[in-house]
Amino acid sequence: MPGRIPDSFIEELLARTDIVEIIDRRVPLKRAGNEFQALCPFHNEKSPSFTVSPAKQFYHCFGCGAHGSAIGFLMQYEGLEFRDAVEDLAQSAGMQIPEEAAGAAPRPKKGLLEIMERAAGFYQQELKTHPPAIDYLKQRGLSGEVCRDFGVGYAPASWDALHKQLGTDAESTALMKRGGLLSQGDSSAYDKFRDRIMFPIHDRRGRVIAFGGRAIADDGPKYLNSPETELFHKGRELYGLFLARKRAGKLNELLVVEGYMDVVALAQFGINNAVATLGTATTPEQAGILMRATDTVVYCFDGDEAGRKAAWKALQATLPQLRDGKQARFLFLPEGEDPDSLVRARGADHFRELLAAAQPLSDVFFERMTLNVDMESIDGRARMVRDAAPLLERLPEGVFREMMHERLQELARHRLHVAAPVHRPPRETQAAAGSAQRTPMRLALALLVQNPGLAGQAEDLDDLDDATIKGADLLRHLVEICDGRPNLSTAQVLEKLRDHEAHAHLVKLALWNLPGETEKVSREFLDALAGIRLQKVEAELAGLPRIVDQDPGQRERFRALQAEKTRLRDSLRGRNN
User: Fold this and answer.
1) What are the chain's domains?
2) How confident is the model at residue 522 (pLDDT cuts 50, 70, 90)?
3) Reported pTM
């Protein structure tokens, strides 16, 4: 695995990157005062709620809640992983990502990617000169155009055709082994793929990282994929995603099938939004990639028992990704059919009708939960709740999670004819209401996130104890990050805290509407710090015994706290006059 990218590099990269330029290339922006606006690319809307702040180097949609730095935008818009997004920005900025020295595995070398591209070109050339392979593809109903678009090729029935073509020298041989193109025999290496239709597998940046081979003859396995390599981890890739994005631009929906032949066959019939899991069960990594690429995912499986089991695994992998606005549905095909055979037999319109009728994830979930329990008995319904509740806890907080819990309660009670449960406000709404209150701590954090240069005005904060002042540790950490670096942007600060448990809270604070004047911002920050200390003093005073019950030491502490309380109040009054 590659090493961790140093925080200093991320900071420098964001300093050299203009988020307005990055987003405007993909989503045309219009100036609106000190910011820019556009229709949000992540949900459908008629009036713009998507804003980009040049000062903060941060984007936010007030409609769907999408937000982040330039890195976050590429991850969400292009469906890239964090490192891939950083690499894209680094390439644009003319920067080279440094390697971590502490035992980190080296990044894939340029030569390895080049050898994979050369192999893809070789297979494509071989297809043109091998009539039986062309006839096979024609029999499967694939046109020359769709084969060209997907880079379909042919691996000749030879033990060393690819090896000879790409080079038998030590360096080329080593690269081909690293890329999974050669297998090692007792005495020499030989071509891994022979007499097979070849499907290049691209990463989300369009680079060839592996291959899938479909046998023409009946001997050997029907399908053969590249082994796991430093380029290719099958649980983190989706066949066809790069081409789906290239063809559709913004993907409103993605269809997930099991094999690359299904993807190509559907594309032949004009269904260009299909991707494949390369024959593996859907992994949490793949579910995350899917939900970053689109708002709606339709999983397509056989209707037999094996297909139902695969669907259940996909459902569980998807649960943590279902933030508000995201949804998953399930299409179960007639037994014995797959997308390839069905679209050829019944046509694209029929297949689209099936897609439109796909079951919502909620229906599939509760069907599974009630399948093997006696819903006529209290014990059976209790068992259903016991099994379902922990799975629902995987859902992100929000409206969908609340509705799933309410549905679970309804199912548990419906046989007793009990009235519907009392509606509880969604936790997200409760949290939002709490965070809207401008306490001194929240105000200090918001001002500091939006104006990192304020850290230089913060006095020594060691007197603030997080045991009594909630958020004190976070405030000290923010001051430590920002101190002496007045030119940090909001995006840089938040990117440094991407994995911090308080990241989502800080994002909300970064969106607070605060004064723009430097003098007023400085005054409010100092007032917020004074307010935090005043709360601490008042809390300690409240914890002391009544004056008549105080011992001499407590009485002395009481007088000192009263004096500090008066000083802080006078300080606040003085700055506000």
Assistant:
1) 7-93 (3.90.580.10), 110-232 (3.90.980.10), 236-359 (3.40.1360.10), 372-422 (no CATH), 435-576 (1.10.860.10)
2) confident
3) 0.67
